[in-house]
Amino acid sequence: MSDSTRTFKGKAPKLGLHTYIDTSAVMIGEITLGNESSIWPLVAARGDVNHIVIGDRSNIQDGSVLHVSRATDDNPKGHPLIIGNDVTVGHKAMLHGCHIGNRVLVGMGAIILDGAIIHDDIIIGAGSLVPPSKVLESGYLYIGSPIKKARSLTEKERTFLKVSADNYVRLKDEYLREASQ
């Protein structure tokens, strides 16, 4: 365990291969971080009352908050937070008990609430609010508060989703190299 990762009720974060967690980030409890993924400065991730899974090559940028919802009589499984592969989560986003597919860009300051399902290949505009249990269909740009489908993604935007994740893998590698010197 490092200063950035903490055990809670006997459950500790599990880190994949070649991951980067900034020393100012905090990851507590039942969290699984996939291979080649990165957690940037001032991220707070609490897998305390449910679990968090972050896929491969995903990046959670500065000041983002990741949390979950506990099990209740009405919702016996609660709401874990599941983030797919090649996901870019912009600065100061708040993700709470939602499910995010693969190749998704969550814009800066966006808020995604309990039970929301974000399918693959989506861009969520900066400052958008995804209400509880909202389902976003694959292949679109969504914007607004509350969020609305704006238009289909262009082929260039679809390609950019993977490029964005790849850029953060390279940046993460630079940080790891510098830290090892």
UniProtKB/TrEMBL annotation:
It comes from the Bacteria. Pfam families: Hexapep. This is Gamma carbonic anhydrase family protein. InterPro entries: Hexapep, LbH_gamma_CA-like, Transf_Hexapept/Carb_Anhydrase, Trimer_LpxA-like_sf.
